[in-house]
Amino acid sequence: MDFGKAIRKDFPIYGRYAGTGLFCYLDSAATSLKPRVVIDAVKEYYEAYSTNVHRAAYSLAERATEEYEGVRAMVAQLIHAPRADEIIFTRNTTESFNMLARTYAEHFIKTGEGILLTEMEHHGNLIPWQELARRKGITLHFIPIDSATGALVWDAATFGTFLKERNIKLISLTHVSNVLGTINPIAKIAAIAHEAGVIVAVDGAQSAPHLPINVQDLGADFFAFSSHKMLGPTGIGILWGRYELLEKMPVFMVGGHMIDDVMSTRATYRAPPLKFEAGTPNIAGTIGFGAAVKYLMDLGMDNVRDHEKMLLTAARHRLADIPGISFLGPMDAEDRSGVLAFTLAGVHPHDIGSLCNEAGVMIRVGDHCARPLHKKLGIPASCRASFSVYNDMDDIELFADVLKTVQKKLSAIPVSLSHDAVSAGNN
């Protein structure tokens, strides 16, 4: 299904820049644009029933609680979670992994045991495990990638033995790389991991906005993602976990609302998910996220995926004849999602981004919070175009034309891609 212009009327920001010719947004992997229904849902909360949740018996507070908890059920439906009380509201995917590291892993993984990551992880699914390893003497292991194809290098026949030999207790890996776009074989990895008694946590920040997700079919034990990358507000994220694991996990933050009873010297805590949700939550953001989830489900995630594959295929085809361009990640749109990262020989990524911006084309440049991956690839930075439901073929054509012009302007200028010259980037 070709969405593109057909749904741009739903996104107010396009109306604001209509007629300027300076709004080609290709940075949805960092943060997506927001449809009117999301903005209206947040506005309605603040204007009509801006009260706290779970704390009062009057009608406005009851409505706030009903709307808020309704989002939990809707998210469970989106990802095919068995039950709504497995959905924990966090601030974002990064907080979800910090929570997981500080609760499940801190409590159940012991000194001398191992955690397995991949070489393509976003910092949000890397640094929490580094800190845990430093605190507890846990060893981090990494599944390597093939730099040419962007695929994980692993052998299903020997993987179970590898996990046992290295005493791996948790695998935490991205579903879709935010640089390479690689869709990792989560279900295959999880099946072997579970045979070896290993828990599997999945970073779904770049998959939940683009792919139909069924956490049961994936075989995940935990799955984390963020609202702001899937048409919703910032400041609201999700950690889904199997209920039997959530029950065993210690609390993360403590304070109001997450308690069952409080005495002078001790407290007892509520059942999941509320025991992980201390204090007043981001009510408006959560309600806005619910509107985003409904919007995506109404479009149909299979349709979202088909639209994205069309854009990815078209973009690779149109950009392929630009001199010096090198794409990162898989060649086939079937094997990738969301993003198209590349470099241009002899041209600094920041110069590309700056000149694209002058033409109204917004792409991301930097290391995209995946610095170890860029080091593995032998580059300090890359350019990244990323797509969502509101992009169309006109965006691809404009981007290709602008990039060709940029390449002609800059290719004659020698540049050294020194690490110090490139900022950390983000997302």
TrEMBL record:
Keywords: Pyridoxal phosphate, Transferase. Its cofactor is pyridoxal 5'-phosphate. This is cysteine desulfurase. One of its GO terms (molecular function) is cysteine desulfurase activity. Transmembrane segments: none annotated. Its EC number is 2.8.1.7. Belongs to the class-V pyridoxal-phosphate-dependent aminotransferase family. Csd subfamily. CDD domains: SufS_like (cd06453). Pfam families: Aminotran_5. One of its GO terms (biological process) is cysteine metabolic process. It is an enzyme of class 2 (transferase). Residues 25-399 form the Aminotransferase class V domain. InterPro entries: Aminotrans_V_dom (IPR000192), Cys_dSase_SufS (IPR010970), PyrdxlP-dep_Trfase (IPR015424), PyrdxlP-dep_Trfase_major (IPR015421), PyrdxlP-dep_Trfase_small (IPR015422). Gene3D superfamilies: Aspartate Aminotransferase, domain 1, Type I PLP-dependent aspartate aminotransferase-like (Major domain). It catalyses: (sulfur carrier)-H + L-cysteine = (sulfur carrier)-SH + L-alanine. It comes from the Bacteria. The lineage of its organism: Bacteria, Candidatus Sungiibacteriota.
